[in-house]
Amino acid sequence: xxxxxxxxxxxxxxxxxxxxxxxxxxxxxxxxxxxxxxxxxxxxxxxxxxxxxxxxxxxxxxxxxxxxxxxxxxxxxxxxxxxxxxxxxxxxxxxxxxxxxxxxxxxxxxxxxxxxxxxxxxxxxxxxxxxxxxxxxxxxxxxxxxxxxxxxxxxxxxxxxxxxxxxxxxxxxxxxxxxxxxxxxxxxxxxxxxxxxxxxxxxxxxxxxxxxxxxxxxxxxxxxxxxxxxxxxxxx
Length: 236
Hints:
The chain is an alpha+beta fold. Helices cover 43% and strands 23% of the residues. The chain is built from 8 helices and 10 strands. A hairpin with a 5-residue loop joins strand 1 (83-90) and strand 2. Helix 2 (18-39) runs antiparallel to helix 3 and helix 2 packs parallel to helix 4 (63-73). It is globular and about 50 Å long. It is found in: Cytoplasm. Residues 83-234 form the TACO1/YebC-like second and third domain.
């Protein structure tokens, strides 16, 4: 699985306790609000909003939550504006982290992340401290694929296709994500997930003693309502 993206969070927390799902619902609502503010409330013309709504549906976000998030993004409800902020830093054993946040309070978010990384033997870095270790890729997940569809996707520009235990991952150039998603939908293929993610160019092997620290850090990042996506170069 690439990084620890929203896909991982959705599937880890689907059957979790209400408190865990509440944190995920907040993240999904913030993503919808920001997409509306940046591109308008119509998902047919706002691709980022369409992606955010698709993810919200996969996570079973209540319809009223999504509608409220759209109104907040459109300025119809009071509240602080949500902003996208990316942080970079290091975890146990020098593992690199790119942490994408959606927040209405940057001071709160940066303080929380600094505390978390320090707690697990890491530290918050400055801009470009680790981003050069990653590259942006479009990531699409579908349930299954046949040879004909695989060849069609390659002809359509897919960079790589990986078959995992319970789904198929299609990698694209970031700018080709929309085109590839629509290509699949036109063929009647249900897209389980689509997002631009940060992929580590090279993986870093993690020793056993650092594995537990990393897993605890992942769980705390999942629980932080400001953390939208996060990626590492850890090979666990």
